[in-house]
């Protein structure tokens, strides 16, 4: 059975990738970081939570990454973790550079030092093209990063290539254009629109506040993009690929279609607030996926219209459930009992600690508490 390590398994892509690789018979290890409110809702709503071996690890903590690699001993590694929201990268440029950029070097070092001969996938981004003025972008198009996030992703993209060539690693970067789904984070514009429109249609809200309506993106469906990602690591040679639909639509197109689907007129509800504009905007992204079609045999089936419908309909279902008093997937119990957590407490070293506990003196201490001498 092939073993895989996925960082960022609690995120949109990590969850879909895990679901897909489970269907292919992989044993899945996924890293998650401790946050005050655990967020396994994506894994739970896909019904795969209990099938994942979860390892607590943070990309900022090299020790925990080394441990994740050691414990999982993977055949394939997918680095999906990043601080992925572009707006926040302007507010937290240093943290973003460390997580999205430098941490990738640390991860590659962990694989090198531990001599783990795994194939490595890096989640590169179309955001790296930035405002380069090109009307369609492919694997040869120059990059012109226009956010701290994009600059960090470009650094990571470069370092993956360095490790591939220096240490003969099977390391690949997928340059993925925007991909969305009902599991998308609520702050990204696609989900903000589908969720907002559903709330408005249900009479729970009366406005949707957005920023720049004229930016254009090449939006695809996340679940099928993960199939392309897997294919990249099944090739004979490590190469980078653009994954996209080849169609660009504006935020306004998304808004209009989403309101059409529920039979409402967007103009009545949409407000613009400068708060949602960026210091440096990427105006236009559209990817040429010919290489992926030719070499991977991959093609997107769900394009813009189907994607918007799928997202609006799912958000409508969720709000209907809410109104009926049923739970949302993200209301599921947070650490269900079926959790397969691999912590250092589940390791052999704890067994010896337990043995020591059997020692009579320790038993007495556990029973009576330690005898503390005061001066
Ligand atoms: P996402 O939903 O925001 O998921 C990001 C994941 O990274 C989450 O699991 C998050 O954990 C984890 N993470 C963040 N900081 C971390 C840290 N310090 N240590 C460990 N884990 C950390 O993003 P996504 O849409 O799935 O995207 C997956 C990857 O593809 C990202 O690298 C993203 O930059 C890249 N990408 C995405 C797109 C897209 O359109 N979706 C396009 C191109 C590239 P928490 O759940 O704890 O926050
Ligand atoms: N988030 C957001 N919120 N974006 C808005 C809003 C709003 O209220 N109003 C307009 N927009 C515009 C943004 O200015 C941007 O031009 C576009 O909608 C898309 O924004 P996001 O959905 O936040 O995605 P992104 O394109 O910045 O980044 C996503 O795609 C990248 C790949 O190109 C993220 O998934 C990145 O992680 C990914 O690398």
The percentage of residues in β strands lies in: 5-15%
Task: Using the 3D structure, state the CATH architecture of the domain at 3-186 and 216-254 and 281-316.
Answer: 3-Layer(aba) Sandwich
CATH superfamily annotation of the domain at 3-186 and 216-254 and 281-316: NAD(P)-binding Rossmann-like Domain
Unreliable parts? 370-375
Radius of gyration: 23 Å
* Bound ligands, each once: NADP nicotinamide-adenine-dinucleotide phosphate, guanosine-5'-diphosphate-alpha-D-mannose
Distance N terminus to C terminus?
60 Å
Name the shape in a single word: globular
Number of strands: 14
Count of DSSP helices? 13
Question: Major sheet: size, sense and barrel closure?
Answer: 8 strands, parallel
CATH class of the domain at 3-186 and 216-254 and 281-316: Alpha Beta
Helical amount: 40-55%
Question: What's the short story on this structure?
Answer:
Helices cover 42% and strands 14% of the residues.
Q: How does this model look, in words?
A:
This protein is α/β, with parallel strands linked by helices. The protein has a domain at 3-186 and 216-254 and 281-316: Rossmann fold (3-Layer(aba) Sandwich), CATH 3.40.50.720. It contains 13 helices and 14 strands. It has helices at residues 12-23, 41-45, 62-72, 86-91, 93-113, 148-167, 189-201, 222-232, 251-261, 290-296, 304-323, 348-358, 360-368; strands at 3-7, 27-32, 53-56, 76-79, 119-125, 171-176, 179-180, 208-210, 216-217, 220-221, 241-243, 249-250, 270-272, 340-341. It has an eight-stranded parallel beta sheet with strand order 11-6-5-4-1-2-3-14, sandwiched between helices. Strands 7-10 form a two-stranded parallel sheet. Strands 8-13 form a two-stranded parallel ribbon. Helix 6 links the parallel strand 5 (119-125) and strand 6 (171-176). Helix 1 (12-23) packs across helix 8 and helix 9 (251-261) packs across helix 11. The chain starts with a strand and ends in a 7-residue tail after the last helix.
